[in-house]
Design the sequence.
C-alpha cells in the first residue's frame, strides 16, 4: 500500500421508513426552535469522567465537533479510567439545581442533553428545572429572553453492556417520568426494554416496534440503536443500524457498519450530545441523527490511533479536525437547501463516504496488513499496481497545477506530482527490487485512472477527484501505523504512514477543495460531490484488487481490529463501569 505522498517526506421499510438516502420533510419538535445563523449553546447535564472518554468531557467535545458551544452541569463525580470505575460521588440534588439555575439565569440555552442521573432526587431536580424552562418559554423574562423551550435529548444511562442495572428502582421510575418532558430519548436496547417495562426485544424489527410503543405512550421520539444486536445471529445481516422512531412508526432508518474496536467508551454520551447540538443547528431530528451517526462512526474508527489507556478507549471526537476538516458552521436549513450559507459541504461528503471507508477497513488485505499476516505475493501484487497508478496519478496532479487559479495552489499540486513520481515510486522500487516490468495495469487500476482523467479540464472537479487518494490513505494509514511494532513483518512500510508531512499535505488539499466548493454554484458542487464519491469507491476497489478472500460483506465486521475485546456499534456501553453520559 502506497502512501502516494504528495510531498517529499439502510434500506427503508415499505410504508413506514424513509430510506437513508432520501430527503424527508424535516422532523422537528413543535415546542422548540433551532438556533440558526449562529453557534448553538448546548448544556450537558451529566456525570464526569476524569479520563475524558465519557460524560461531560465527551459531551463538550461532541458539541464542539458539531459546531456548538458546550456548557455542563455535573450530576456525579466518578473515579475511573479506561479500565473501569473505582468510585462514584453524587453531590446533593440541590447543588445540581443551583448549577442549572445559574446557567439558565444568564445564558439562552438552545439545547439540553441529559445523561447520567444517579439517583431519584437528582432526576426529580432535573424534571423540576425543565418544568421551569417550559413556564419561562411561555412568559419570557430575565437576561436570557428565551422565546422557546430548548430542545432536550435524554440519554437514559440505566443498563451497562453486561446487563447490570445501574440505577435503583426509584431512580429508574424518576428517569422514566422525564420522558414526557423531553423531545428525544436515546436508549440502548436493554435500556429501551427498561423504559418500556417489557422484556428485551429479540431482534431489530421487534426493537423498532418496542420503540414505537414507547414513543406513543410518552409522546416522544426514540432513537433505537442496534449495537446490542452484537451477540445475536442477525448482527451479521443488519450491521449496526439506528432509527428515529415516532408514535406512528419509523421516521428514518440508517444502515451502518459494525465496527471492530475497543474505542467505544462514551459512544452513548457522544451520540446524544452530538444529536442535541446538530438539532439546534438544523431544526430537523432526522438530519441531525444522520450527521451524528456518520460523524460518530468515523470517530470510533479513528479512536485506536489516540492510544489512550489500556482498556476500552475513547472515540476521537475531533476526527474531522485531525483529518484536515474544519468545525461545522452553523447554517439554516433553508440556506443549506439553496446551496447558500457557510455549510461545510466537504465535511458532509466525507461523512457520506463513511460506509466506503468502513468497507476499506474491513478488507482482508487491509486487516492482514495491519496484523502482519499478509503474504508477500499479495503485497507485491498490490505494490505493482500502485506503482503503475502513481505514474499517471502524478500526471493528474500536474494537470491540477496547470489549472490552479493561484500560485500557492499551483505550487502545491506541482509538489504533489513530484512526490508521487519520485519519492513514492522510489519507495515502491526499493520494495519491489525495481520498477514493474511487463506488468499490465489491472482493470481496477485503469478504471480509477480513467475517472481522474475524465475530470482533467475542470479544476474544481479534478481536485474533488484526486482528494480521496490523499484523505482516505491518510485515514486508513493512521490506524495501521498505530498497530506497528518492532517485530511486525511490514514495520518499515507501516512506518511511512505516520508521516507528519503527508498529514499536513492532506489538510492543505482538503482546505483547497473546501475553498473551491464554497466558491462554486450548486450544480458545480453536485458534480464535485459525484467525483469525490466515485473516487472513494475506486479507492475501495483498488485496495481490494489482489483477490485476497474475506472482503467486505464476507468477513462479518467492518472496522479495524483493536486491542482485543468485543465488537461494538455506535451505542456500546462498557460492561465493567458506570456509564456517565
Sequence:
Amino acid at each position: 500500500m502506497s502512501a502516494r505522498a504528495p510531498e517529499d517526506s439502510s434500506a427503508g421499510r415499505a410504508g413506514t421508513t424513509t430510506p437513508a438516502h432520501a430527503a424527508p420533510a424535516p422532523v422537528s419538535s413543535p415546542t422548540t426552535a433551532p438556533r440558526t445563523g449562529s453557534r448553538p449553546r448546548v448544556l450537558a447535564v451529566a456525570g464526569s469522567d476524569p479520563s475524558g472518554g465519557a460524560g461531560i468531557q465527551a459531551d463538550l467535545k461532541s458539541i464542539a465537533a458539531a459546531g456548538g458551544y458546550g456548557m455542563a452541569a455535573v450530576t456525579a463525580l466518578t473515579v475511573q479510567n479506561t479500565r473501569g470505575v473505582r468510585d462514584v460521588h453524587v453531590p446533593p440534588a440541590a447543588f445540581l439545581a443551583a448549577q442549572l439555575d445559574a446557567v439558565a439565569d444568564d445564558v439562552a440555552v438552545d439545547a439540553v442533553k441529559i445523561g447520567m442521573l444517579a439517583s431519584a432526587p437528582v432526576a426529580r431536580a432535573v424534571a423540576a428545572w425543565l418544568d421551569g424552562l417550559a413556564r419561562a418559554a411561555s412568559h419570557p423574562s430575565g437576561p436570557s429572553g428565551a422565546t422557546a423551550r430548548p430542545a432536550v435529548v435524554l440519554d437514559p444511562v440505566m443498563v451497562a453492556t453486561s446487563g447490570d442495572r445501574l440505577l435503583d428502582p426509584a431512580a429508574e421510575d424518576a428517569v422514566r417520568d422525564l420522558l414526557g418532558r423531553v423531545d428525544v430519548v436515546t436508549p440502548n436496547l436493554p435500556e429501551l426494554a427498561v423504559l418500556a417495562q417489557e422484556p428485551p426485544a429479540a431482534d431489530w424489527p421487534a426493537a423498532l416496534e418496542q420503540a414505537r410503543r414507547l414513543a406513543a405512550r410518552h409522546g416522544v421520539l426514540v432513537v433505537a440503536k442496534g449495537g446490542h444486536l452484537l451477540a445475536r445471529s442477525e448482527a451479521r445481516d443488519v450491521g449496526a443500524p439506528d432509527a428515529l422512531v415516532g408514535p406512528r412508526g419509523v421516521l428514518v432508518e440508517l444502515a451502518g457498519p459494525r465496527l471492530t474496536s475497543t474505542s467505544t467508551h462514551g459512544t452513548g454520551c457522544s451520540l446524544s450530545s452530538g444529536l442535541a447540538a446538530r438539532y439546534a443547528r438544523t431544526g430537523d431530528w432526522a438530519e441531525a441523527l444522520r450527521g451524528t451517526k456518520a460523524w460518530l462512526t468515523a470517530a470510533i474508527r479513528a479512536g485506536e490511533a489516540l492510544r489512550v489507556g489500556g482498556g476500552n478507549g475513547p472515540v476521537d471526537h475531533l476526527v474531522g479536525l485531525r483529518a484536515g476538516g474544519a468545525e461545522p458552521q452553523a447554517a439554516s436549513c433553508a440556506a443549506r437547501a439553496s446551496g447558500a450559507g457557510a455549510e461545510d459541504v466537504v465535511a458532509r461528503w466525507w461523512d457520506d463516504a463513511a460506509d466506503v471507508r468502513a468497507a476499506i477497513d474491513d478488507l482482508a488485505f487491509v486487516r492482514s496488513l495491519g496484523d502482519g499476516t499478509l503474504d508477500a505475493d499479495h503485497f507485491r501484487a498490490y505494490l505493482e499496481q500502485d506503482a503503475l497508478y502513481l505514474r499517471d496519478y502524478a500526471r493528474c496532479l500536474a494537470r491540477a497545477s496547470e489549472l490552479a487559479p493561484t500560485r500557492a495552489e499551483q505550487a502545491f499540486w506541482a509538489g504533489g506530482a513530484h512526490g508521487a513520481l519520485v519519492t513514492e515510486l522510489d519507495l515502491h522500487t526499493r520494495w519491489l527490487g525495481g520498477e514493474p516490468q511487463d506488468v499490465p495495469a489491472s482493470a481496477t487500476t485503469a478504471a480509477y485512472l480513467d475517472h481522474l482523467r475524465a475530470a482533467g479540464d475542470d479544476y474544481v472537479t479534478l481536485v474533488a477527484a484526486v482528494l480521496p487518494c490523499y484523505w482516505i490513505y491518510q485515514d486508513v494509514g493512521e490506524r495501521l501505523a498505530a498497530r506497528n511494532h518492532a517485530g511486525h513483518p511490514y514495520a518499515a512500510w507501516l512506518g511511512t504512514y505516520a508521516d507528519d508531512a503527508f498529514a499536513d499535505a492532506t489538510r492543505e488539499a482538503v482546505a483547497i477543495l473546501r475553498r473551491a466548493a464554497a466558491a462554486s454554484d450548486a450544480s458545480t458542487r453536485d458534480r464535485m460531490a459525484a467525483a469525490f464519491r466515485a473516487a472513494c469507491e475506486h479507492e475501495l476497489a483498488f485496495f481490494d484488487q489482489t483477490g485476497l478472500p474475506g472482503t467486505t460483506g464476507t468477513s462479518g465486521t467492518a472496522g479495524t481490529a483493536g486491542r482485543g475485546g468485543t465488537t461494538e456499534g455506535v451505542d456500546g456501553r462498557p460492561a465493567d463501569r458506570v456509564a456517565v453520559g
Notes: The mean pLDDT is 80. The longest strand covers residues 69-81. Strands lie at 41-48, 69-81, 84-89, 111-114, 151-154, 184-185, 221-225, 242-246, 249-254. The chain has 21 helices and nine strands.
